[in-house]
Design brief:
Blueprint lengths: L7 H4 L2 E4 L15 H6 L1 H7 L3 E4 L3 E2 L11 E5 L6 H13 L3 E7 L8 H6 L13 E2 L19 E4 L4 E4 L14 H17 L3 E5 L24 H4 L3 H14 L6 E5 L5 H8 L8 E3 L20 H15 L6 E2 L9 H4 L8 H13 L4 E5 L20 H12 L5 H11 L36 H6 L4 H14 L1 H5 L1 E5 L6 E8 L2 E8 L5 E2 L8 E5 L8 E2 L4 E6 L2 H11 L1
Parallel strand pairs: 1-2, 1-13, 2-5, 5-9, 9-10, 10-11, 12-13
Antiparallel strand pairs: 3-4, 6-8, 7-8, 14-15, 15-16, 16-20, 17-19, 18-20
Helix pairs in contact: 6-8, 9-10, 12-16, 13-14, 16-18
The structure holds alpha-D-glucopyranose.
Length: 566
């Protein structure tokens, strides 16, 4: 395999923060920038190298900040620019880099560009967005929005439709307009000048729209599923490459693209070579494993599907480009509830197992706040508890519209809705889990007395300490970062297994996805154990949700040396 070029972001672990739900310091029930600054010591203790902040810009909050109304201003609920600058400098002082979330596909309808754009057809901002005439008195095509309903909104005043892939308050920018491209590059430079270290580019797969043909309508749906028609087209790559040249020329600035629907082939187009548009992609294949086109189908988790997705990304990208590793983010249910086992007996063990799997793969691991505690789905039972615009729209369309029994909609959200990941960070067993002295904007998960950072900091065996060890190992063992990936036991129904090799150093990673002991021939108690979620082991077997990493060669010496230096 080709020698991998060294970069800080390949060796890093990146921690994602959803600022609304992280830490409130002013009692308004919404997290803020000073809350993040307050918790930097925790993040430093955990050992992460960088944080990615979900959007903190001025926004009417239709989609919790992904609807930006001013790219150069901080949302007042989150604080001031001075608070941001302090956060940035204190993070840097602790050796933690800061990535911003840049929303490129759309703005808020309250952004001055859109306000001007919709004022009349002649103004210079009209072409900043995508406007179309009606076709036979109807929408220009059958596209549905990702948040349900049509993707086109009628504008009475100017007699045209505008496109919004997300909510109607999030009109899509027209990337074919060079003025739009230039504006966004300037926004990026504005934040780079402040000293940020990189960006997660939101929803970039749909920037370059090439065709406005109708999309396939799945059974039971009202509108066309646009993803295959608009995602990851060559034009998107061209726009992103141009943006890179215009704004991201410093090789130390890392660019991570959220590229829904991307295949490994297209990821290589984005991320390979010197001229690459992105340094790594956030791909979706593994997080949608087990889901079907029928949104009401039971989303059962099945190991072969998850493994097939993760394996494909590991093997297809190595030797070509880098990859972003994640199981959790603000758009997904909690991984321990989706892929692990959140029953009290197995919650912590399976959270550690999933973490081992992810952190031992080739790529840069992302931790989403609370994942390191093994936080679980909130499983809200009432619609009133949900805040997610997608959930509220879906409720209106399907349950209130009489298309689906309300219980089915509630069940779907309990299992899969992204609000499961957006409940407040569980800091302690105190009021509101230590998140806020006010009333939290979204309910706290009921299990915070059992699952919280304060308790886990005191317990050497906690999930939190386990994550800490995984991060320290990454920093100490080059094989974890740069080693070649090789799948093992490809057809095993219970165990996900693989090897990593770098020179003479070799790791064997074994993860049992079952709540019972299973047979596993590579499990060899004679070999050195680099990390495991059990203290004792059985040769040839793995205990319920056991994750064990066996090491041979010079891995462990590097490990003990660096661990001692810490
Ligand atoms: C991305 C974000 C998601 C948001 C959407 C629209 O997928 O992660 O939270 O709703 O883009 O901006």
């Amino acid at each position: 395999m080709r020698q991998e070029e060294r970069r800080w972001w390949k060796e890093a672990v990146i921690y994602q923060i959803y600022p609304r739900s992280f830490q409130d310091t002013d009692g308004d029930g919404v997290g803020d920038l000073n809350g993040i600054t307050k918790r930097l010591a925790y993040l430093q203790y955990l050992g992460v190298d960088a944080i990615w902040l979900c959007p903190i810009y001025a926004s009417p909050n239709d989609d919790n900040g992904y609807d930006v109304s001013d790219y150069r201003a901080i949302l007042p609920q989150f604080g001031t620019m001075a608070d941001f600058e302090r956060l940035l400098s204190e993070a840097h002082a602790r050796g933690i880099r800061v990535l911003m979330d840049l929303v490129l596909n759309h703005t808020s309808d309250e952004h001055p560009w859109f306000v001007a754009s919709r004022a009349n057809r002649e103004n210079p901002y009209r072409d900043y967005y995508i406007w179309r005439d009606p076709v036979e008195g109807k929408t220009p095509n059958n596209w549905g929005s990702c948040f349900t309903g049509p993707a086109w909104e009628w504008d009475e005043a100017t007699g045209q439709y505008y496109l919004h892939i997300y909510s109607r308050k999030m009109p899509d920018l027209n990337w074919e307009n060079p003025a739009v491209r230039q504006e966004i590059a300037e926004v990026a430079r504005f934040w780079l000048d402040k000293g940020v270290d990189g960006f997660r580019l939101d929803s970039v797969n749909t920037l370059g729209k090439e065709s406005y043909r109708d999309a396939e309508v799945f059974p039971g749906e009202l509108y066309g599923w646009i993803w295959p028609v608009v995602s990851n087209l060559p034009r998107t790559n061209e726009h992103l490459r141009a943006l890179r040249q215009a704004a991201f020329t410093d090789p130390d600035v890392v660019i991570v693209g959220e590229t829904g629907g991307v295949s490994t082939k297209l990821a290589r187009r984005y991320c390979e070579g010197e001229e690459r548009a992105l340094d790594m992609c956030l791909s979706f294949d593994h997080v949608v494993a087990g889901l079907s086109d029928d949104r009401w189908a039971d989303p059962r988790f099945c190991l072969p599907e998850l493994r097939a997705a993760l394996d494909r990304w590991q093997t297809d990208l190595q030797g070509h480009c880098w990859h972003a590793l994640y199981l959790s983010n603000h758009d997904r249910p909690r991984p321990v509830s989706r892929f692990g086992d959140d029953r009290p007996l197995f919650r912590e063990r399976s959270a550690k197992m999933l973490a081992t799997l992810l952190h031992m793969m080739r790529g840069t691991p992302f931790i989403y706040q609370g994942e390191e505690l093994g936080m679980t789905n909130a499983y809200f039972e009432r619609m009133e508890d949900y805040r997610d615009i997608g959930a509220l729209n879906e409720w209106k369309q399907y349950a209130l519209g009489g298309l689906v029994p309300p219980q089915d909609v509630l069940l779907r959200h309990a299992r899969l809705n992204r609000d499961n990941a957006r409940t407040p960070m569980q800091w302690s067993d105190g009021p509101n889990a230590g998140f806020s002295e006010g009333t939290p904007w979204i309910r706290v998960n009921g299990n915070y007395r059992a699952v919280n950072a304060e308790a886990q900091l005191k317990d050497e065996n906690s999930a939190l300490h386990y994550f800490r060890r995984l991060i320290a190992l990454r920093h100490a063992c080059p094989v974890i970062v740069y080693g070649e990936y090789r799948p093992l036991l490809a057809d095993d129904p219970n165990v996900y297994a693989f090897e990593r090799r770098l020179g003479e150093a070799m790791l064997t990673v074994l993860c049992n996805f079952r709540d019972r002991t299973v047979l596993c021939s590579p499990m060899d108690t004679e070999r050195e154990i680099l990390i495991s979620n059990y203290d004792t082991h059985l040769s040839g077997q793995l205990r319920p949700y056991e994750a064990t990493v066996l090491a041979s060669g010079p891995v462990s010496s590097a490990h003990s040396k660096c661990m001692n230096e810490k």
